[in-house]
Amino acid sequence: MTTAVSEPLHDPERDSRSWTPPVDIALGAARDALARTASADIHDHNDMVRAAAGLDYALRGLVAALDAEGAR
After folding, report:
1. What single string gives the DSSP state of each residue in the chain?
2. Crossing angle for the helix pair 23-37 and 45-70, nearest 10 degrees?
3. Hey, how many other C-beta atoms are within 10 angstroms of the C-beta on 9?
4. Is 52:8 a contact under the CB 8 Å cutoff?
5. Rg of the chain, C-alpha, whole Å
6. Burial level of 55, CB count in 10 A (0-12/13-18/19+)?
7. Taken in order 45, 2, 14, 66, is the CA torsion positive or negative?
8. What is the pTM of this model?
9. What is the pLDDT of residues 16-63, one digit of tens each?
10. How many Å apart are CA 58 and CA 72, to the nearest integer?
11. Are 65 and 23 in contact (CB under 8 A)?
12. Residue 72 has pLDDT above 70, yes or no
């Protein structure tokens, strides 16, 4: 059993995607996430958690889009 303190950032069963964006949309989302998190305060725990979650989501979307395009 996991608690909120030790819960992983990504759980494939819980966090599966119902839709995979096209590569251009996923790339734009990744660039937006990078821009949003660029000014996060490294000394602020909440900033770092938000940055990690946002970047994780954007990167997973980009990888899914690239995988889907490669499968064509």
Report:
1. ---TTT--S--TTTS--S----HHHHHHHHHHHHHHHTT--TT-HHHHHHHHHHHHHHHHHHHHHHHHHHT-
2. 160
3. 10
4. no
5. 14
6. middle
7. positive
8. 0.77
9. 777 889 999 999 999 999 999 999 999 999 999 999 999 999 999 999
10. 22
11. yes
12. no
Tokens 């938000």 sit on residue: 50
Residue 24 one-letter amino acid: D
Token output for 8: 């992983």
**Cβ neighbours of residue 50 under 8 Å, at least 6 residues apart?**
37, 40
Residue that the structure tokens 């064509």 belong to = 72
Residue 5 carries which side chain, given as an amino acid letter?
V
- Take residue 13 and report the two structure tokens written for it: 């069963």
